[in-house]
Design goal:
It is a single chain. With about 55 residues, the chain is an alpha+beta fold. The longest helix is centred in the first third of the chain and has 27 residues. It is elongated, with a radius of gyration of 24 Å.
């Protein structure tokens, strides 16, 4: 019984490790990086500093 539980934990940890490695690879894969989108900001004078909001919000 202990051997089966230990094997299950080893398999589960291996799958989680493999999944995290795939997520890191996808993060650094340049094909999945989207092109930057330009956003126009509107400046509003606040009490102590200016505030910037996206246009249309």
């Amino acid at each position: 019984m202990r051997n089966m539980m230990a094997l299950g934990l080893v398999l589960l940890s291996g799958m989680l490790l493999f999944s995290s490695v795939l997520q890191i690879y996808r993060c650094f894969n340049p094909q999945t990086i989207n092109d930057p989108v330009s956003v126009r900001l509107v400046r509003i004078e606040g009490r102590n500093c200016p505030l910037y909001y996206p246009e249309g919000q």
